[in-house]
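Hello again,

I reread your note about wanting to compare the complex against the isolated chains. To keep things tidy I'm splitting this into two emails, and this first one only covers the full assembly. Below are the input lines as submitted, including protein chains and any nucleic acid or small-molecule components. They are followed by the predicted structure of everything together. The single-chain runs will come separately.
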Amino acid sequence: MSKFKQLNEAIIKGDMKLAVEQTQRALDEGSNAQDIIDNGLISAMDEVGERFSKGLLFVPQMLRAAKTMQECMKLVEPLLKEGDLTSKGKVLIGTVKGDLHDIGKNLVSMMMEGAGFTITDLGVDVSPEKFVQKALEVEPDIVAMSALLSTTMPAMPKTIEALQNAGIRNKVRVMIGGAPVTSKYAQEINADSYAADAGSAVIAAKKLLGIS
Amino acid sequence: MQPISTANFQPRLKVLNREQALAIHNAALEILEKIGFQMEHKGALEKLLSAGCKVFNDGRVRLPAYLVEEALSSAPRQITLYDQKGHESMSLVGETTFYGTGSDATFTLDLETGQRRRTVLKDVANFAKLVDGLNNIDFNMSMANPEDVPIESIYIWVFAEMVRNTNKPIVFIADSGRDIAKIWEIACLIAGGEEELQKRPFLLNYSEAISPLRFPENVMEKLIFCAERKVPVCLPSGSNAGGGAPVTLAGAMALGLAENMVGLVVHQLAGKGSPFLFGPNVSTLDMKSSIVSYGCPEWSLSQAALADMRDEIYGLPIWAYAGASDSKVMDAQAGAEAMFSIITAMLSRTNLIHDVAFLEYGNTSSLEMLTMADELVAMSRFFTRGIPVTEETLALGAIERVASGGPGSIFLMDDHTFENFMDAQFLPKLLDRSRYDSWEGCGAMDLYKRCNVEARKILAEHQVEPKSPQVLKGIDEILKGCQK
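Full-complex prediction:
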């Protein structure tokens, strides 16, 4: 960790006030916006992810760090030219049709966002048509589906079928998750990946897109 | 000797004082009056509006406290569940406690291989049969989310499999108004008609609202279905601390209770006087793994608090959990967590206690775990009974005989021991107290292995009294319509 050591540490600790101050200071001192993002913000979140996977951080600490990073981004983002902002990938996510449970899905969203993915969250009770419509619009790299109820799981293959029918199944990777979902089920319905929890969803997404 | 005239004291756990209980209750009422909830079932919403609720501009329903008070006073204080042969089996009232399994585990520990594998319909049968054969397990839930039945009618298949393999009361799950109607048809067949089922219900529906404060259409459909037919029901939401609810237990309880009150109000408006089992599920979301814990002390604490609130305020029988674990295998952690929740649920006198024999935070079921829990419940019952103090148990006569009986006189030989030992002592079946050599000689088995042997033995030998051929045929016909 570099010249942005204090900023890195403020983000890791989730000290929002200090992190925003440090970001502003870096900008005032003439640091390049992309440099701040890469070495001040994203690198801090990588460290947070690392510590979390080792069991050294708890979920709320990680989420607070992500929130802190977002606050800092608000200062830096306007200074970037359009198209400059590097994203790890675009993720379209939602809880499938008939299912209104979203705690797990929200957690996945937040952790992916913290890891540098761009998230489009469709919310709950998302029909296959809605998934397709939004996928055509935002052209995501990954379509991620969640279900808590075993009775709503069949909406997952239906959504995959709808992506197929719309001719975009081969343009996206499909990830699924949720309490009754298994990796075996993911194979059966030809999803590309299954993740048991939010942490492994980030790892699986990176793996799907071939990024570290 | 001083004679004992009053009833003997029985150990009892209390965790809240009256002031705390009222504060949580009032917070729940305030949530309903000020924050409101989302009601997604039109019929339920209409009932609420005509009873005095209001929808604010934010689309959320506000519910006045008096409706809760009315519902609390019209719901019955006692729910009696019968077995499937029509005998009274579980009288949920006051301080009675009953234990049973849980529902919808995705995996089970295979009895033959010990491996965790996806559950199938046969597992539903095995758990039901084992429940039927265990003395201290009072009711049955499916323990499986089988992969080998049509998913659209999974709960009908599961229910049919349960009634074929046990005659004990059943707590069942349904998806919506459609499958619950089929399940109810099967139940009517078994009870001998709708009226008989109402008179002697052997089933209770478990359904969940979504925390925070969301009431989906299908959930309300089931609730109203049960209210109209007097099928006992419970509607605990998953107001887990840190997940669906605030991380602090008092707030999580207030939210869970508020959600339960909405369910109760709708239920009593749809069927005044119909039986409603009260209480939320307040466990914790683990702050590292984000699983909902089934072995944490918080869940036991929150339901002990609910029991105190029942005594202080609600008066309705309550829903609870015990005998489960977050451990992936049946190890020391599983034993410790299971016993912790079993004894505290009993000491705090929660009424209907489910989820016995879950491992892996409710994701995996285990027949061995159920067999062990049966013994842990027996051990807890012994403890909770307290110490009977009577002329017979003070045993001054025996003391005099042995003390003055001269050389060779021992209590083991005295008639008082012979006459009392079965009742005076807890006599374990599976918890091993044998001397070392004998334990080694019997294969040096640990508790997991002994429970495996016992579970296999019960499944091989226990006979479940079968349903009549007509009933079985009727069930098959209903299932024929549920191939998809």
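For quick reference: Residues 397 and 416 of chain B are 9 Å apart (CA to CA).

B.
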